[in-house]
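Sequence design from tokenized structure. All designs in this work follow the same two-part layout: the structure record, then the generated sequence. An example of the structure record is given first.
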């Protein structure tokens, strides 16, 4: 991690400790994110059941139109949930989702998941093993691929249920 990323990470951690989203005017500003209630110590991932707050560098959040939140221990489980709502969230429709956020790898700030770049097949593992590593932009994704031997860069719409299942088995093709 270079100096620029280290400084951004410290700023994001300080903001997270205050319970607010990191300043979007930072060095890698992406989409502005309104402050979000962080997961509490008992909030469980609705896909795997893990305690989400134990993995602050991987937190993903869905904010529902009714004001509710769903917290995930990583983007892979977030995508599993989104791609199979009848299984993981009976009664919730895609239209009920107001905002989808992921924690960006270098800045450790919440960004709009639809605008992020995701690297698979790297040497960086998340709480549930092989993960979709979110990066703020194409330049960060390219840097991450070089530094961590990533196999592919994907955009939000390219992630499928089959891909998440392959990641669980350590397959990146």
């Amino acid at each position: 991690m270079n100096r620029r990323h280290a400084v951004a990470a410290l700023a994001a951690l300080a903001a997270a400790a205050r319970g607010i989203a990191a300043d979007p005017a930072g060095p890698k500003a992406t989409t502005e994110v309104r402050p979000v209630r962080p997961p509490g110590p008992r909030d469980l991932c609705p896909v795997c059941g893990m305690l989400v707050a134990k993995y602050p560098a991987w937190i993903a959040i869905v904010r529902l139109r009714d004001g509710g939140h769903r917290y995930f221990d990583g983007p892979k489980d977030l995508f599993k949930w989104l791609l199979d709502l009848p299984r993981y969230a009976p009664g919730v429709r895609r239209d009920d989702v107001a905002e989808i956020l992921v924690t960006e790898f270098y800045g450790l700030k919440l960004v709009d998941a639809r605008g992020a770049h995701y690297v698979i097949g790297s040497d960086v593992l998340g709480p549930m093993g092989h993960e979709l590593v979110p990066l703020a932009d194409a330049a960060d994704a390219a840097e991450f691929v070089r530094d961590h031997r990533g196999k592919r860069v994907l955009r939000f719409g390219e992630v499928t249920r089959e891909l998440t299942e392959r990641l669980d088995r350590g397959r990146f093709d």
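The chain has one domain: 3-168. We note this feature because it recurs in several other targets discussed in the main text.
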